[in-house]
Amino acid sequence: MIPTPKTPNLKDYPSVYPPSEDSFLLLDYLEEYFTEKPSPLIALEIGSGSGVVSTFIKTLSPSTFCLATDINNIATTVTSSTATLNNQDIETVCCNLGTSLEGLFNKVDLLVFNPPYVPTEATYNTGIEASWAGGLFGKEIIDTFLPKASKFLSKTGHFLLVGIKQNNPVLLCESAKELGLSGSIVVERKAGIEKLWIIKFKRSDE
Amino acid sequence: MKLLTHNMMRSHCKGAVNGFPLKLNFSQVNIKEIEFNPDFINRMLSRLEWSVLVDTATQLGVNEGLPEMLPENQEIDDEETLKKIHHVLLEVEVVEGELECPETGKKFPISKGIPDMRLNEDE
């Protein structure tokens, strides 16, 4: 078991999502994912927050080019610091759902997103709310991103998405088919009142 | 921001048809030593916009003999050449500067190595 990457003191950064049960589920699954010895050339994370996930991917797979992104420019600063604290070299870009990185279309071998998934009235572009407010059924940000996920993925690439039961993962997988994505739930875990899942997608047009 | 990242970036301003390459204005560049992995460089070659990489490296004064063009099969055996490519892709980092949309002129700041590509609603 590889330890969770160290972060700067996140109490100093209240708008940045601290590693929580959903983050740990993703880290645990990534450790399992890498036991199969894949060698993704390019990894892209949407919503890196504290940066622990991208830093962890780089630790597990030093030969992978890891690019972490977040819409919150405090989060991107913290992401960069987390990588440095753990002696890992990752790239960071502040952008909205990977917009401006279209040069990575068809090239991402490992795409990762722990999205805002909590059902809320509204979604947000700034502040800590941007990290968890998922709008209607908690799916609005996920639904906005899914078509882009399909474009980012390389032929053999995988997209790991985290969510909760209220986001209706079965329906998500169904509607993702129309976007050329074939996905299935690979892990589920109960964390407090949340029933977390991770779906692994790949391109189905191959 | 490494030149590999710059190579993947596109402007998404309203009205920008191509948005590539983003013009690079830099005020601080660092060189960071990164472990050389020839296999990584070879695998990455086919995913690059090669001429943009060469032009940008030249602009930054770090082009130390990159080939003008890649061979047909996009594979390079010569370790010296691979090391030169490794250097410009991964070891040159723009710490402070800005990226500029080639069509609208909109500027995106790079601060502490992180480009901020966010746009306002109307952009």
Estimate the mean pLDDT confidence of chain B: 95
Estimated structural class of chain A: alpha/beta
Strand order of the largest sheet of chain B: 1-2-3-4
Strand and helix order of chain A:
HEHEHEEHHEHEE
Q: Bin the helical content of chain B.
A: 25-40%
Q: How many β strands of chain B by DSSP?
A: 4
Could you tell me the mean pLDDT of chain A? 96
The shape of chain B, in one word, is: globular
Helix content of chain A: 25-40%
Radius of gyration of chain A, Cα only, in angstroms?
Answer: 15 Å
Indicate the structural class of chain B.
alpha+beta
Largest beta-sheet details of chain B: 4 strands, antiparallel
Query: How many helices of chain A does DSSP assign?
Result: 6
Sheet with most strands: strand arrangement of chain A? 3-2-1-4-5-7-6
The biggest beta sheet of chain A reads: 7 strands, mixed
Show unreliable segments of chain A: none
Oligomer: heterodimer
Can you count the beta strands of chain A? 7
Q: How many H/I helices of chain B? A: 4
- Beta percentage of chain B is 15-25%
Order of helices and strands of chain B: HEHHHEEE
Question: What does this protein structure show overall?
Answer:
The complex is a heterodimer of chains A (206) and B (123). With 206 residues, chain A is α/β, with parallel strands linked by helices. Helices cover 30% and strands 26% of the residues of chain A. Chain A is built from 6 helices and 7 strands. Chain A has helices at residues 21-33, 52-60, 73-85, 129-132, 140-152, 169-177, and strands spanning 42-46, 65-70, 91-94, 108-113, 153-164, 181-191, 194-203. In chain A, strands 3-2-1-4-5-7-6 form a 7-stranded mixed sheet, sandwiched between helices. In chain A, strand 6 (181-191) and strand 7 form a beta hairpin. In chain A, helix 1 (21-33) packs parallel to helix 2. The longest helix of chain A is centred in the N-terminal third of the chain and has 13 residues, at 21-33. The relative contact order of chain A is 0.16. Chain B has 123 residues and is α+β, with helices and mostly antiparallel strands. Chain B contains 4 helices and 4 strands, in the order αβαααβββ. Chain B has helices at residues 3-8, 38-45, 50-59, 79-91; strands at 23-31, 92-100, 107-111, 114-115. Chain B has a 4-stranded antiparallel sheet with strand order 1-2-3-4. In chain B, a hairpin with a 6-residue loop joins strand 2 (92-100) and strand 3 (107-111). The mean pLDDT of chain B is 95. Classes of the chains: A alpha/beta (206), B alpha+beta (123). The interface between A and B is medium-sized, with 25 and 30 residues.
